[in-house]
């Protein structure tokens, strides 16, 4: 049976890059998952690159939370 | 009373002696007996517990002890939220069954203290991020308006169950739209409160900085009644805040209310043809109630959606990475694909996403200097049929449809948003409108939605299968 993989520029470079990132996290993705994510990756990468072009964010404090003092366990 | 009643109607009927909690609960359980084999809303039912709680509610109300509008009301809880009466599964075989065993999440404890009759735990899609898996051990949730269609997710069981009268309200969670998407597809009202307004302790995390717990019910008034009970800080959730929640005064008019109307990005050419006319009609109703309409745009739309994606991916992968590495095949394929996306961004990307969130949040705050409420469609389409979102290998995916989901922006900025039914497609499937407010401005959007719902009846319409159930009672 065929499986639907999103159409996109899932180039050999993207496939290799995605495979490396998944491997670095120890995620044993199969060929279908690798192809799927490789097809998406160029669009995700373009979106992430766009985050770095937001002028107003150059001096923005990130919305991270860390406060001294130990909160109660969840 | 119409069938099934709204929470607010049922609460009034209880106090008028027109119905008992036991009767309401028996009716809700009967609806589940009749319909849940098809709809797949429940993962676990607590019938005996619920009937005992209903009897207790009737005794208390008869004795003059009134715990408020949820007292004696059949209520459902999404199965990522801990409840002592049964295990939390997150609809996964991966989650340790001992997770939060025997404990109530603070929101559940608050519901119990308010006298709610919790009837069971509800379908959620695996870890609130996968898709239904017909080959797995859990039911495939179906939409009460078209049982061949997806009910939306991940709060699938809560939305479907409310629409079908299996309970009168329920809890969901929203990290990228998981309250509002199913509310929209199932024709019910869903409220994502401000981030931190409702504690998420005792909830299986998806995105630590994005997860919101909130109600789904028939009406805005119903949602307001639930929010009044579940709002407030809890020491177990460091993100929860002690900003007082003041319940809205429902006036019915919108004189002086400025509504920012958002069209940009919300009307793609291939959106459902009924969407634009339905939205225009909803705006006409709001203007007729006295609101002033102002065309506006949402700042940093694309950037904020990307920031949500990066943030959720990273936070979810941090939680799941060890299990993914060890038990990859135990996850539903769509879930592991969604979680693996978190590996595709760097730590710097994550921090940059948080900087963009701050910028978007500040820009949005400025926008709310000029408007009181923002209105936009929730979704660009009616509920997709399963056969349209299932590939030849049997994988169910809405990745292609997700561009019609206009919800993740709001999770990322943390503002409160309510999704309300506003019409139907040509096929009779619900369409939905979002009403968003400034941070901690829930009362404002609830009041606006209530005024809209007084003037319309979309939220009162019930699927044919639920109406049949009512006629047979």
From TrEMBL, chain A:
<protein>
    <submittedName>
        <fullName>Uncharacterized protein</fullName>
    </submittedName>
</protein>
TrEMBL record, chain B:
<dbReference type="InterPro" id="IPR036928">
    <property type="entry name" value="AS_sf"/>
</dbReference>
<dbReference type="Pfam" id="PF01425">
    <property type="entry name" value="Amidase"/>
</dbReference>
<dbReference type="InterPro" id="IPR023631">
    <property type="entry name" value="Amidase_dom"/>
</dbReference>
<dbReference type="InterPro" id="IPR000120">
    <property type="entry name" value="Amidase"/>
</dbReference>
<dbReference type="InterPro" id="IPR020556">
    <property type="entry name" value="Amidase_CS"/>
</dbReference>
<protein>
    <submittedName>
        <fullName>Amidase</fullName>
    </submittedName>
</protein>
<feature type="domain" description="Amidase">
    <location>
        <begin position="24"/>
        <end position="446"/>
    </location>
</feature>
